[in-house]
Amino acid sequence: MNEMFLLKLGEMVLKGLNRHSFEDKLQANIHRRLNGLGRFRVYTRQSTTYVEPMEDSCDMDAAWEAMKKVFGVVGLSRARACDKDKDAILQACHEYLDDRLRSARTFKVETRRADKTFPMTSIQLSQYVGGELDELYPNLQVDVHHPELTVYVEIRDYAAFVHANPDPGAGGLPVGINGRAVSLLSGGIDSPVASYMIAKRGVALDMVHFFSYPYTSPEAKEKVLELARLLTPWCGHLTVHVVPFTAIQEELRRSCPEEMFTLVMRRFMMRIAQRVAKRCGAKALVTGESLGQVASQTMDAMTVTGQVVDIPVLRPVVGMDKEEIVQISRKIGTYDTSILPYEDCCTVFTPRHPRLRPTVEEAEAAEAGLDIEAMVQAAVDGIERIRL
């Protein structure tokens, strides 16, 4: 039989009557990630999702890398299926894992017998396969506590499967199972990490980016689009809503007290992002705010900026320090792009002495002379939508 993938499900298995909806969403996400890599059969049995190639032309290596970034999977193994017979299982171990068995020094066999009709117990089958492999490979010694290689044998409903140590999966829940949100994506380190973390909780995303040409360059815009592209293997397909923000920032510079500029600017961002959310059916906003990191991210400031919207504002990195955020950024592959030296709109007209303890009343007073609705609508009308 051909090589296939075994994907171990995480917290999804704890779900009750709606568990099938989680499994269906996971399978749909897997099919989408495998698009263009060949024809695969995807099905779920006994808390495991099977990904089985249906033709020799399937790109198994590319499919394997894609499966590592599917949320909802906590572990995955490349496996060989065989008949549920002890000698067939031994032969599959010998053929499929030969290279690993030759290079290892210590090993053990671990059997999981989901099909209780199989005539041998898990311990008996492990002892049989382990003993035979020990005879076949003089380089190996049995070590049941800290083996260099573990040979896994799984006896399931339709077949037996053999594989070596599983790789860790992405974890979390299938993207889309918990609805849709709009993430405010800048060119920095924090917002891509926040987007990744909320997608891991099963949320599909649209992205909003605020572009202030000519104060921010086309290269800065392309940097943000590249960050979005780097997030698509984790988040699925994305639409980036690029908002023309120059006119709003210039008006705020003319009309707004300098110390309140950043806060009022962020209030406009939240208003516009909520308009985008309502247009695309999203139920929340996502930001990369980390408590106390900059002046606009104190508790008082977050109260002021969040006061202008009536949908939840999710802040996945709010309790993390910069080093923790950087570590995740490196893991998901966005760090090197995030640190490219292209400015974003948040660095335009930065006040010398921003307010650290603002109040809603002060923000409203700073906005009193502005035609807020007209400014927001003009920005929304000028949005460029880029599908990735």
Automatic annotation (TrEMBL):
EC numbers for this chain: 2.8.1.4
What is the recorded name of this protein? Probable tRNA sulfurtransferase
Q: Pathway it acts in? A: Cofactor biosynthesis; thiamine diphosphate biosynthesis
Organism of this sequence: Flintibacter faecis
Compartments (UniProt record): Cytoplasm
Per the record's keyword annotation, is tRNA-binding included, yes or no?
yes
| GO CC field | cytosol
The segment(s) forming the THUMP domain are 61-166
Q: This protein's superkingdom?
A: Bacteria
